[in-house]
Design brief:
Length: 240
């Protein structure tokens, strides 16, 4: 067989030997020690109500970076009912302040209730999780504390990420970590745009544009991971 033919065969063999992501997910879930009761309860409640929240693999990824970065300020885009904000608060150092943005009024209301019930405040009684209600594209512009967030979690409408990116970079501290969830969109991002249904083409194009923007952005160093529904981990370079 020609050299090229060998390469193709090698690739097929490697692909055949690749771990099945669904089985990988089962293994990771089975190996991960359960979190505290209040997070388990909230997770079950959200899943039964059909609220999309971070999957176990993404939880592990976030936990890992919370341990590495030990952030004192986190910005989250996409609160839903507050599961991931409370999750981050649980594993972040004491006193870490979290700003989280949600545009759906019903979800924002539920999240506020969950923060009151399960959130940790300061001794002064100040809440450490602050919810901003409204469209992130607008609200992000209003946050003026440039370069002050050590971690940023992007988990809102996937087609909007590209719009949030300039403010996300502005707000991230040098050395700060931004995690973007669901970059693979259930695998659709791996397919050509022609293989995607017409309805999903815009979001497919926007997500591809977002991934390209992350990879080409000189102020960021980005790693794309097949974790969960795909995640991008970007670090804002410290010496710009
Ligand atoms: N991070 C949450 C968790 O894991 O518990 C899940 C967030 S859910 C996947 C995405 C949320 O982003 C939805 O509740 C949706 O209403 C909100 N969202 C979508 N577009 C938004 C926007 N432009 N501004 C603010 N929130 C938005």
């Amino acid at each position: 067989m020609s050299g090229d033919g060998d390469k193709v065969m090698d690739r097929y063999e490697r692909e055949a030997a690749m771990p099945d992501p669904a089985r990988m997910e089962v293994l990771i879930e089975a190996m991960t020690p359960p979190g505290p009761d209040h997070l388990q309860g909230l997770e079950q409640e959200a899943l039964s109500a059909g609220v999309p929240i971070i999957r176990p693999q993404t939880q592990n990824l976030i936990r890992f970076f919370l341990a590495v970065k030990r952030p004192s300020r986190i910005l989250e885009i996409g609160t839903a009912v507050g599961f991931s904000a409370l999750f981050m608060q649980h594993y972040a150092p004491a006193g870490c302040r979290i700003i989280t943005i949600e545009k759906d009024p019903g979800r924002a209301e539920q999240a506020r209730g969950n923060f009151r019930k399960f959130g940790k405040g300061e001794e002064s009684g100040r809440e450490n999780i602050v919810l901003m209600e409204g469209d992130a594209a607008q609200l992000l512009r209003e946050i003026r504390e440039d370069a002050s967030f050590d971690m940023l979690f992007m988990d809102a409408a996937k087609g909007q990420y590209i719009r949030f990116l300039p403010d996300a970079i502005r707000l991230l501290a040098p050395g700060g970590i931004m995690i973007t969830d669901n970059i693979l969109q259930e695998g659709e991002i791996l397919s050509s745009r022609f293989a995607v249904t017409r309805r999903n083409r815009t979001i497919h194009a926007r997500m591809r544009a977002y991934i390209r923007a992350l990879m080409e952005e000189e102020r960021l160093e980005t790693l794309l991971l097949p974790t969960g529904d795909g995640a991008a981990v970007s670090m804002k370079k410290a010496n710009l």
